[in-house]
Amino acid sequence: QVQLVESGGGLVPAGGSLRLSCAASGSFSGINDMGWYRQAPGKQRELVASITRGLSTNYADSVKGRFTISRDNAKNTVYLQTNSVKPEDTAVYYCNAQVYIYPWDYVVLWGQGTQVTVSA
Prior knowledge:
Structural class: mainly beta
Low-confidence stretches: none
Order of helices and strands: EEEEEEEEEEE
Strand content: over 45%
Largest sheet: 7 strands, mixed
Radius of gyration: 14 Å
Mean pLDDT: 96
Shape: elongated
Number of strands: 11
Distance between the termini: 40 Å
């Protein structure tokens, strides 16, 4: 069974930093795009950042210049470095990945979510 396991969330003061990690485990052929989403109470889940296997990145305007997404293909892991966090960054953060179970077909998997709370 393939799964994504997240870690690194917690309580952080405004202006501080956190590093989120998400590792894929199980049996699979490879991983294509990976990303981080977040969902705040009463709001829809939104894309925070994404990264291709070739390391091209994309960011939501609200986090550009503050958050950095990266990945280690050898470890099947994606990271989100969050700097200069703001109270409005408070949300449950979910990782997402296109995982090739077989070489010709992938499934989209989600992590269980990790809470990030920014105190004012």
